[in-house]
Predict the structure.
Amino acid sequence: MNIVDLAKFETDHEPRAYVNASVRFHHEFTLEQRFKAAQKAGWNVFQFPSEMLKGGDLLSDSGTTTLTAEQMAAMVLGDEAYGSNYGYFQLLKAFKDTFCVSPDDSEIYLFHQGRATEHALFTQIGKFGRNLKIPNNGHFDTTRANIESNGICAIDCFSEELHKQSFAPFKGNMNLAELENLLKKDYENIPLVYITMTNNSGGGQPVSLENMKKVRALCNKYKKALFYDACRFAENSYFIKTRESKYNKKSIIEIVKEVFDLCDGFTISLKKDGLANMGGALVIKHRCPLLKRYPNLTDDIRNHQILTEGHPTYGGLSGRDIMTICEGLKTVVSDAYLKNRIGQVSIFGEYLKSGGIPVLEPFGGHAVYIDTDKFFADTSLKRSDFAGISLTGLLLLKGVRLCELGAFAFGENYPHNFVRCAVPRNKYEIDDLYYVADCIKKMHKNRHKIPPARPVYGENLPLRHFKARFELRW
Ligand code: F0G
């Protein structure tokens, strides 16, 4: 069967509009044009021109937010001074109001995005010694790569519930038994414990406040620092409010404060719950136990920041970017915003489920994760056929972009094999998402005809999913 024929179907819904480029650039693209572009891109979704997408670019929720009117207005006030710009002080205020940290009690470093914060932190921590290990409830790919490229071992302690079918409200929890085993066994070699909220490589699942408190208690017992990868802190807090009965009556901001009170530091990509298109930060509280042993750590990171990003008061960000973050942090903790945001992802998930698509439940905060193994369970495709890559590749022909986070991105032996539908914030209407879901459902009907993805370049490169090229053929 011709590959293009696999995408020749009608859908019940049509996207509201071509939403990825300005109206001036709106073009209708044909299946054949998208096919040619997909081939040229080596069926690698990252290389496919976004201009050709049709209402459903669910590649990432990172930096893809539509700015609010308040953010656009604030941008105009962006001060592009080289040192100590107006926005910097606004941002310090926003950090104090949101995370309860200020230069009085913490080192606050600005970076252009999340991975730059990870790079700065782990480059310095990597110098502490050999055989270091960092446990996490689920390292994200760039976090793992930044840790491993500094000779540190990144260990995932996924919760047991994540692997089970049944409903569990906090599948993103740290596996406490595994964590304690590690702390006992490798006491000397663990500089810090890391919690990712929500757990992006484990289905976008939340972490409960109870679990965080227990991790904190273990960190106290073993005298370890507790850090967060806090990219989706507001979405995580919404789940705490709605699923952890003790916190039903608290406001989101009260929960956020309680969450951040527990940690000794955090990295954050502000491209997610900062509601910004660019930005990242690293915070290390002065009370952090790491600083007792490594008092130069904060200054070494400061030097790293100056060498790689710029003056500490702008840290790789324009004054305009900084202003969007200040406003974004105010909006993101509002109940109404979060209810709408998480609600939309959940309506989309329900619609996929009702069409027989095997999705991880409960749905993640920022994304719905398709279980690729189950999607192709009754076909002859094996994990080594990278069917998730074929699925994401074929969907490009319909102007829909998803992301494989499974057998190809993380290796065939990774515990999960997902295709992620990450929903950008403030961007799509539900019809856009229904269109995406309709296309996935049609592909599911055609699953027996979908060919394997054969890597023709980059199969053995690190971070291969960003770089590889494929052919789709039997
Ligand atoms: N940590 C987590 C949990 C993330 O999801 C990401 C990025 C990062 C760190 C790195 O942040 O992109 O600003 O450098 N996640 C994006 C995604 C890329 O699509 O999930 P960054």
In short: The CA atoms of residues 383 and 412 lie 6 Å apart.
